[in-house]
Amino acid sequence: MAVLMAALPVHERPRERLLARGAEALTERELLALVLRNGTNGISALDLAAGLLADYGSLDALVMARPEELVVRPGFGPAKAASVVAALTLGRRLNVPRSPRPVLRRPEDVAAIAIGELGAARQERVLVIICDAANRILQATIVSEGSVDRSLMPIREILNAVLRHDGRAFAVAHNHPDGTTEASDADQRATSDLKAAASVVGLRFLGHIVVAESAWRAVS
């Protein structure tokens, strides 16, 4: 007789084990059971998953299953078939080589991104470009908008954004809506403060530029 997941001791249930020990602690059958979510007519999700793997022979073979094959299986239906196909398709796509991420090598690289993000802005914005250890771009995000006081570079928010995205290096850009790329004294102080703060938390600071429409200037 099948044992339903709800009848298992809490520490043996796949979902609880995943949360406590991580996905790597689960078997393919248990992971697939979590995708199925529940069983049917006294058949547990674990048993449905085991039957699916047995019939297809392996997870690699199951990846090629079509929705119309799965939807007619006992205990399945459109929802379960769609969930299985969607989950396996996501896994397959992760193995497809992706285009290499852009790399920040010089101020021109920072400017190319910053002009696209900030060039047309009518309010002052601060953009942080987050990179990995090889200076490949992970994320570009606005951390401040609308300030009229250029002394208010949000250093804490910038560092938090980098750390939150597992960054190892970063560059910063902000725009001058008045059309000038000349760095103010406050811009220069902010650059020095960012360098010092990045060093304290173990991050590499790759530079700070000012953008005004399609023009730009590095802040030393």
Label this structure with key terms.
about 220 residues, alpha+beta, DNA polymerase, domain 1, Cytidine Deaminase, domain 2, five-stranded mixed beta sheet, 9 helices, 5 strands, about 15% strand, elongated
Annotate the secondary structure layout.
Elements: H1 14-21, H2 28-36, H3 45-56, H4 59-62, H5 67-70, H6 78-94, H7 107-118, E1 125-131, E2 137-145, H8 155-164, E3 169-175, H9 185-200, E4 204-212, E5 215-218
Parallel strand pairs: 3-4
Antiparallel strand pairs: 1-2, 1-3, 4-5
Could you describe the 3D structure shown?
This protein has a five-stranded mixed sheet, with helices on both faces. Helices cover 42% and strands 16% of the residues. The chain folds into two domains: 5-94, Orthogonal Bundle (DNA polymerase, domain 1); 107-218, 3-Layer(aba) Sandwich (Cytidine Deaminase, domain 2). The chain has nine helices and five strands; from the N terminus they run H-H-H-H-H-H-H-E-E-H-E-H-E-E. It has helices at residues 14-21, 28-36, 45-56, 59-62, 67-70, 78-94, 107-118, 155-164, 185-200; strands spanning 125-131, 137-145, 169-175, 204-212, 215-218. The radius of gyration is 26 Å and the shape is elongated. The chain has 220 residues and is an alpha+beta fold. It starts with 13 loop residues before the first helix and ends with a strand.
SS summary, helix count: 9
In terms of DSSP E residues, the strand content is 15-25%
SSE order, as H and E?
HHHHHHHEEHEHEE
How far apart are the termini?
73 Å
CATH superfamily name of the largest domain? Cytidine Deaminase, domain 2
Count structural domains. 2
| CATH topology type of the largest domain | Cytidine Deaminase, domain 2
Largest sheet: 5 strands, mixed
- Would you tell me the structural class of the helices and strands? alpha+beta
User: What CATH first level of the largest domain would be assigned?
Assistant: Alpha Beta
| Adjacency order of strands in the biggest sheet | 2-1-3-4-5
Radius of gyration: 26 Å
Low-confidence segments, ≥5 residues, pLDDT <50? none
**Number of extended strands:** 5
Shape: elongated
- Which CATH architecture of the largest domain? 3-Layer(aba) Sandwich
Q: Could you tell me the mean pLDDT?
A: 86
- Percent of residues in helical segments? 40-55%
